[in-house]
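hey m, so remember when u said the tokens were messed up on ur end? i reran from scratch. heres the input so u can diff it against urs
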Amino acid sequence: MPLPKAAPDSREGPPAARADRLSAQTEAIFSTAGSFERLMEHLPAAFAVTNGMQHTLVYANAAFRELLTLDGEMRMGLPIASVIAEHEREELVALLDRAFRSGVVSRNRTIEPEHENDFLLRCTVWPDVTAAGKTDNLLIELRPATQDEQRLGLHRRVAERLLLSAMREEEAATVAHASQLAAQFLGAEGQRLAASLDEDETLEAMSRLSLPHFGEWCFVDVRNADLTTRRLPIVHPDPAIQELLDALGTRWVPTPNDDYGISAVLRADAMSTDIASEDFVLAESSLDPIVLETLRAIGVGTMLTVPLRVGGAIAGAITFVGESDRHRATAEEVSLAHELASRAAMALDRARLHGMAIAAIEKAESANQAKGDFLGMMSHELRTPLNAIGGYVDLIAMELRGPVTAAQLKDLDRIRASQRYLLGLINDLLNLTKLGKSSVAYNLADLNACEVLQASVTMLEPLFEQKGLIFDGVFCSTSMLARADREKVIQILVNLLSNSMKFTSANGHVRIDGEESRERVIFRVTDTGIGMAPEKLETIFEPFVQLSDRLTGTDGGIGLGLAISRELARAMGGDLTVRSSLGEGSTFTLTLPRPATARATESDVSERRQSWSNERGPGGESLSL
């Protein structure tokens, strides 16, 4: 048996000596019963007496002490719970409490041991009930269970544990199965809700939601942008009931006094309380009589409302409608309803964001189209007077209007340069507007890539010496072919070379080279100019974006050359990219497709080489006979 928790105190010696160590109350109990005490002390049965609601131990005979202690010693005047091990203590105190309160004898009750190898105890408690019906003292008998009782107790404990284990396993299996079904249900409904990015289609999918085993339908209330509320058209799987619901028309709409739906959700949110799902029933006072009659005819029972939260704000509410014989939703159904509403809210948020993005794109495209139309119109209007200016400058320079001095010819050259510069800008604007409208015609043909590089360099070669730049040359294979529009490619390359010349100081280097891969022809224009910061590498390809030209002292233009060049490259099936380091220079890379015949020829050669290799042995010997 477990060791006692209280400190031992000797009970040996004559009764008078022991009485000195008893409390006054214990002394009163045994002062007239000395012979009874001596009789009880030597009885083989284990007896003890407690007093009061705390079950203070006032007497324990030798058998009792020896049953619960190793040395047969036990302190009196303490609650009996202090000398009993924790497991036995709970059961014994429960028996004593019951006997003390009820005054009823508890006979031969079992006190289970903490460990299976410990003795099982049997306990009987006799309450000492006074004439006034009050219990002051309890007489307790403890005895070890017999072998048969021990065996039966062990069998009972094993059976109880087996039964409890089986019940737990069954419960765990039930919970796991329910969780699996819930997960499958949520997965299927989530896919259905996310099937479309259109807001109207998403709302229609939400109107078809239902909870398994709760009801077949729901109704959805949503909050509009102006904070008004509306109820979506209700969808019911039964055509007859659907006809009844359709007949309600606009009679059944959200009202501020509703105990369900969006009104209940908004009231709870306004009070800053946690919105919990509640079960509601139809209230006669808050409904149109026709609506109430229709809903009762349909068999509307408990209604379970959960909020739709989008970005922390109330976007609406879903109310699941139970059958007429349903009372309250279970905790599992409430949890499933919240999870379903969460997925519906995410689908609605995604659809709304998609709609906003589409609207923003359409607005931007409309504004861009209007800008392009304006630029195109103004460019056409400006070209006419600029061409006239150029024509009159040429007439004056030819002295058709009379002699012209050398100083005047110099001024005419300045006018002609400005006129050509403005005309070039206007042509760039026209090209940009044409690209935006996809009205540029492309004459695609197979062309010699190296020859195109040479032609582009020839157009700008005199400017390298004029700016004091070192041109390292053109590096490419003379047999390299590309599929593109020759004039457009030259336009791109001239733009790239001009850009490198503009942002490269005197004694800087510029080079251009080409190579080919299986699918592409690759041109690279490299310079040792001022370079660009990483954040500028994409923005320079946007219209009207240009780098600062303070380091070069050149006219920066209006930032259309690179934008037009990339558009032209992509329209021909290629691309234009850049790599650059600030202060170290830049490399612009133009890629263009190779002719299909060239790619097919290379593929045929590769296949023939593989076939030839397969027909020869490891050492190269022929395997054919």
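this time it looks ok to me. The longest strand covers residues 300-310. if urs says something different then somethings off w ur setup not the seq
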